[in-house]
Amino acid sequence: MSLKHGVYVCPPKTARSHRTVPLPRMAVDAMKAHLRDFPTDGPEGWIFTAPQGGPVVYTHFMDGSWRPACAKAGIPKGTGPHAYWFNNQRLHTAIGDIPPHEHETNHYAQHQPQPAAGVSA
């Protein structure tokens, strides 16, 4: 464990903590563009940095960016990034990255009752 920019950097606690996270092509393209515009300081560098450099510290992010953005967007006070992701982004990914109402409309359009053969409607 080492202290780097006021943040302790260490290996994950357990073997299960190592994860491979699949990303949609759009996210991969965005990450490539980000790394092209903001290259890291080698393999140990931070991918996303605070305005003054170094890692994004959770409390600074929440107070300086997340909460003001939520207030401006009308997202209820107390909604954290994980709750927003869990309730919105995760749901959208599970249904093909479309809004829930569009998914529901498509579903019902595909499942309209069909008249029985030989019966006129």
3D structure, described in words:
The chain is mostly helical. The chain is 45% helix and 5% strand. The protein contains four helices and two strands; from the N terminus they run ββαααα. The chain has helices spanning 25-37, 58-73, 81-94, 100-110, and strands spanning 2-4, 7-9. The protein has a two-stranded antiparallel ribbon with strand order 1-2. A hairpin with a 2-residue loop joins β1 and β2 (7-9). It is elongated, with a radius of gyration of 22 Å. It starts with a strand and ends in an 11-residue tail after the last helix.
Which features characterize this protein?
121 residues, mainly alpha, 4 helices, 2 strands, 45% helix, 5% strand, elongated
Helix content: 40-55%
The DSSP helix count reads 4
Gyration radius over CA: 22 Å
What best-fitting shape do the alpha-carbon axes yield? elongated
Distance between the termini: 73 Å
Any low-confidence stretches, pLDDT <50, length ≥5? none
Total strands: 2
SSE order:
EEHHHH
Decide which structural class fits the backbone.
Answer: mainly alpha
**Biggest sheet record:** 2 strands, antiparallel
The overall average pLDDT, rounded, is: 77
Strand content: under 5%
Output the strand order for the largest sheet. 1-2
